[in-house]
TrEMBL record:
Ranges for domain Amidohydrolase-related: 555-648
One Pfam family linked to the record: Amidohydro_1
InterPro entries, A to Z: Amidohydro-rel, Metal-dep_hydrolase_composite, Metal_Hydrolase, Metallo-dep_Hydrolase
Protein name: Imidazolonepropionase
The species this protein was found in: Chitinophaga eiseniae
Superkingdom of origin: Bacteria
């Protein structure tokens, strides 16, 4: 699985799981192309049917998933919406709708999560959950670059760059107040949206697709100035030693807590660890650790790193190491920028070269191949570039798997990934897989080799059938024995499936219930809307929830059977990682063992336990200080108070404030 609608919609000013408005047009007809990693995946058309009245159609297809929306809306002379009616389907093809009207000073709106009415004084811009409304850029300029939002909040505008693309004179607009960090919108001279440009997803006017790379380069230069400034001002580089006093230390190698411990750090390394006896050496920076727990830095073993706030979100959560599971070659540059201190982010310890078969259901990133020999060539290319492993995806033909793995082994590269269509996990393991990605891919093993894992079947079948799977059956025992005999690891990404199987419209997802008030208001609104789950067939609501229970039970069974679990998310940086660890505890794995597998266990798995993974003398100073005791209450890992990466101190409160999040 690769980043889905949440990440792409983020670039469209859309919240965690449900849309926020896009920016409307003012010409008779404008068409846009929707581009995912260089491939056109949909289109949008906007028609001005009469002065101030618009009709739009939006259609996006991502391997059988994707939104579709038909919207009719009206805006006043300043671009503020006065009427909206939208109907369509969300990313997982569930029906959605939204209505809004402003009449006689009263705003009324209804959508999948809200049904409200309130008086409005002055101008206010309604932001849709499902649909689009008005022209925000025009409204912002009419409001002196600052406007009130409905239901709450405010947005501000700054025009940061002028640029010509072909015959179009464009302005790059930076809009703040909608998301963690400012959003960038390209508009023409009439303040009509020209496009949204991102490293994964872009929307641009039809006929101007060749300008995406050029506009992205201009935009990223502006974004980098902001990000680079944060990288200069937030990290604290101490000129001398750092002493953490009287802290409870989590010994990740033994999975035990050591109270009243002092830790001395210098030149990026751990110089001394003293349990029960204070360290008397002088230090340039002293951190009082009483009432807090010091753990090694966490490892998120399933990310797809990109631009934006991700790096900050990882570090603020204490994630100092990541494994990228599929990206474009710009990842190598990103890794260098982070390591050089130009950007804030975790160290990319492992990067994966993703290979998939070409076709309409192919992965949105990585290398697409047409035959076995092409695959071998690209394995060699990834090896030459310094990639650490190969990830195979769902459109790879089963007969290619074994020879591609053999080629990877020549270069000492591990192989992991999805299970290709019409193949089982057992067959992939026997062909040489080292690791199976995502818990649904393991569960599909028990439902035959006729499943097309390129399609949403890979989600729907486990949702509908896992609840009835007997985990004590012979096939399950035989499969786990196969995994153990081949030393196969599992990257469950439970946090990716929890909302899919248990999310319901108008209900806050479990992962967000205790933390929702920390987020920007517009993101809170999306969280309250819920609804990021799969479409549930009639009579199967309980089955879907029970099936997720089997996801948890199988994770615990794998752990109890000696199968290595590596904690990864494939989701929202930082916050989803913390939920992933909470879910392991919910599954029944003891909290101290969860913390161990998330730190020392992963360092051991990646072959880096001599330098990383535990707080021992001589190792790299990567650690996170949290309030309270996460062994007693795993959710205390959210209460990060200090993060140290390579001996550099990061204050999570400053990091969170930089992305409009209330510190924990």
């Amino acid at each position: 699985m690769l980043p889905g609608n949440a990440i792409f919609r983020m670039l469209l000013l859309i919240g965690f799981s449900t849309p926020v408005c896009t920016f409307a047009q003012q010409q008779d007809t404008i068409r846009y192309s929707l581009i995912l990693t260089g491939n056109i995946k949909g289109e949008k058309k906007v028609i001005e049917t009469s002065p101030g009245m618009f009709e739009s159609w939006y259609q996006y297809n991502d391997r059988g998933r994707g939104d579709s929306l038909h919207t009719i809306y009206r805006q006043d002379s300043d671009g503020f919406p006065t009427y909206v009616h939208a109907i369509g389907k969300d990313y997982f093809k569930k029906p959605i709708s939204e209505d809004f009207s402003l009449k006689d000073g009263v705003a009324t709106w209804k959508n999948t999560a809200e049904n409200e009415s309130r008086p409005v004084t002055g101008k206010a811009f309604y932001t849709c959950l499902n649909g689009e409304s008005g022209n925000m850029i025009k409204a912002l300029k009419a409001g002196q670059h600052k406007i009130k939002l409905l239901p709450f909040g405010e947005a501000t505008l700054e025009v940061v760059q002028q640029h010509k693309a072909g015959d179009q004179q464009l302005q790059l607009c930076r809009i703040s107040g909608m998301y963690y960090t400012p959003e960038y919108i390209w508009a023409d001279e009439k303040n009509v949206t020209f496009g949204y440009i991102g490293d994964w997803f872009s929307m641009i006017r039809k006929g101007y697709e060749p300008y995406v790379k050029e506009l992205l380069a201009v935009q990223q230069k502006i974004e980098r100035q902001h990000d680079s400034q944060l990288a200069k001002t937030i990290p604290e580089k101490v000129n001398g030693d750092i002493l953490i006093r009287d802290v409870t230390l989590f010994d990740a190698e033994k999975a035990t807590l050591l109270p009243h411990t002092d830790v001395l750090i210098g030149a990026g390394k751990i110089k001394a660890v003293s349990v029960g006896k204070p360290i008397t050496a002088k230090a340039a920076r002293i951190v009082e650790g009483r009432g807090q727990t010091l753990l090694p830095g966490f490892w998120d073993m399933h990310v797809h790193m990109g631009d934006g706030p991700e790096g900050i979100m990882h570090i603020a959560a204490g994630v100092t190491h990541t494994r990228d599971m599929g990206n474009d070659t710009s990842l190598l540059t990103l890794r260098k920028e982070i390591d050089n201190g130009e950007l804030i982010g975790p160290h990319l310890e492992v990067i994966s070269g993703l290979i998939d078969g070409a076709g309409p259901m192919a992965a949105p990133t990585g290398i697409l191949i047409h035959n076995e020999e092409e695959g071998k060539k690209f394995v060699r290319m990834f090896a030459d570039k310094g990639y650490d492993q190969i990830k195979l995806y769902s459109s790879i033909k089963p007969e290619w798997v074994k020879p591609l793995i053999a080629e990877a082994k020549k270069y000492h590269m591990r192989v992991c990934g999805h299970i290709p269509a019409f193949m089982t996990a057992a067959q992939a393991i026997e062909a040489g897989y080292n690791e199976v990605t995502h818990m649904n891919m393991l569960l599909l093993n028990f439902f035959g080799d006729t499943i097309d894992t390129r399609t949403p079947q890979r989600f729907a079948i486990p949702a509908q059938r896992a609840a009835s799977l007997d985990l004590n059956s012979a096939p399950v025992k035989e499969f786990i024995a196969l995994m153990k005999s081949r030393n196969i690891a599992s990257d469950p990404t439970l946090v990716a499936f929890e909302p899919m199987l248990t999310g319901r419209d108008g209900v806050i997802e479990e992962k967000n219930k205790d933390i929702i008030t920390h987020f920007p208001l517009q993101i809170q609104r999306g969280m309250r809307a819920g609804g990021s789950g799969l479409p549930v067939p009639p009579g199967m609501d309980t089955t879907y929830i029970q099936s997720f229970g089997v996801f948890l039970k199988l994770t615990k069974l794998l752990y109890d059977s000696g199968i290595r679990i590596v904690a990864g998310t494939d989701g929202t940086a930082g916050f989803d990682y913390q939920r992933e660890l909470e879910l392991y505890v919910k599954a029944g794995i003891p909290a101290e063992k969860v913390l161990q597998l998330a730190t020392f266990g992963t360092a051991e798995y990646t072959g880096k336990s001599k330098e990383l993974g535990s707080i021992k003398v001589g190792k790299t100073a990567d650690m996170v200080l949290v309030a309270g005791d996460p062994v007693q209450h795993i959710s205390n890992i959210r209460k990060t108070k200090l993060v140290i990466k390579n001996g550099v101190i990061y204050d999570p409160a400053k990091l969170y404030k930089a992305i409009s999040v209330v510190p924990f």
